UniProtKB/TrEMBL annotation:
Gene: LOC112282673
Entry superkingdom: Eukaryota
Name of the protein: Sulfotransferase
InterPro entries: Nod_factor_sulfotransferase, P-loop_NTPase
Keyword terms: Membrane, Transmembrane, Transmembrane helix
Native species: Physcomitrium patens (Spreading-leaved earth moss)
Molecular function terms from GO: sulfotransferase activity
Length: 358
């Protein structure tokens, strides 16, 4: 009897289990469980996503966040153990630790960061060769003539970080203890387009700015037109040369006399003046020095003052470049009479005066 009851109990249990499984398999209960699991997974995913967003916002760098901290962390580094030497100065002194080599005995030689802002055919090439004639100055040329380097401000900043960390190695890099490092930057190659970011970088990194201009913008225009012709015609044995190192080459290139569009002449001259005025305004908050090509040519003291501005010992500097256009203006322009008539009695009449050799 007991055995029969026991069997009935187990049989009842089996029936209950079977009934439960049947309900589950029927789909109703299964759908309930499936829905619960789906909700649970969604909650977990949402929580993880929220956490990642919070972390991302906390670490993200915005466009005008302090530039100095970013470059120190990402690339540029300095030796904090070096104490300033000599008298106090009015510019930043840096102690770079290059990634590509060791400065060894020059490790604690302070380095001054600078940039030459200018416009094409304003004497910047000649000026830079003079600076590189100094054993303690390294100026690395027209770095941002390569378009990918100025694709956006991030690429511009990375390039400048590399230069100022003394990791930009080319013919301008010095074996001696570099005391001033910089490069040449044309105004139409990024500094005006990203003026706010660039100015912020210069201020925070202590970059001194040399704005090299040419007073006689008419002579600059002649040089631009002649250089454009040389790029196409290549009269020097099929080779284009923006700068020459012999009198014979200079005389050959000076044979070309451009025809100037007098209808748009004053507008073009005014546009150049506007660009240079904007440059002075954009970078007025930096340590800025405006230098004129004509002053450098006429009086050596101006080059001495530039060296003092860069924090190096002034000395006589020389360049192997030979000036191309030395003849009077009337002999450099084909339609001289038309140019003369157009500029007479205007604010640009003084540009017709070429009493100097610039």
């Amino acid at each position: 009897m007991t055995g029969i009851q026991s069997d009935s109990k187990y049989e009842g249990g089996h029936e209950c289990f079977a009934s439960t499984m049947k309900d589950l398999c029927s789909g109703k209960e299964w759908r309930k469980i499936s829905t619960v699991w789906r909700l649970l997974v969604l909650v977990v995913i949402g929580a993880v996503s929220l956490y990642m967003c919070m972390v991302g916002v906390g670490t993200r760098q915005f466009p005008f966040e302090s530039v100095e901290g970013a470059v120190v962390k990402d690339w540029r580094r300095e030796d904090e153990s070096c104490a300033p030497r000599g008298p106090s100065v009015d510019y930043y002194q840096h102690y770079p630790l290059p990634h590509s080599y060791g400065r060894q005995e020059c490790q604690c030689t302070p380095v001054h960061f600078f940039v030459i802002l200018s416009m094409q055919r304003s004497g910047s090439g000649w000026f830079e060769t003079l600076l590189n004639n100094h054993p303690n100055i390294s100026s690395h040329g027209e770095i941002f003539s390569v378009k990918p380097r100025r694709a956006n401000f991030s690429t511009i900043a990375r390039t400048m970080d590399k230069i100022y960390n003394l990791d930009w190695l080319n013919s301008a890099a010095k074996n001696e203890c570099t005391a001033a490092v910089g490069f040449k930057w044309m105004l139409n190659q990024g500094p005006m387009e990203y003026s706010r970011e660039v100015s912020d970088y210069f201020e925070k990194m202590g970059v001194s700015v040399i704005l090299l201009l040419r007073r006689n913008v008419l002579k600059r225009l002649i040089s631009i037109l002649a250089n454009a012709y040389d790029r196409k015609a290549k009269p020097l044995n099929g080779i284009h040369k923006s700068h020459v190192h012999s009198v014979e080459e200079a005389m050959k290139l000076a044979e070309y006399r451009p025809v100037i569009d007098v209808n748009h002449l004053t507008d073009n001259l005014h546009r150049v003046e506007q660009i240079t005025d904007d440059a002075q305004r954009f970078f007025n908050n930096t340590r800025l020095r405006v230098v004129y090509y004509e002053d450098l040519v006429m009086d050596p003291k101006h080059l001495m003052q530039v060296q003092e501005f860069l924090g190096v010992q002034p000395r006589k500097l020389e360049s192997l470049q030979v000036k191309i256009h030395t003849r009077p203006l009337r002999e450099q322009i084909q339609n001289w009479d038309a140019v003369l008539a157009r500029l007479k009695a205007t604010q640009y009449e003084t540009l017709l005066n070429d009493g100097d050799s610039t």
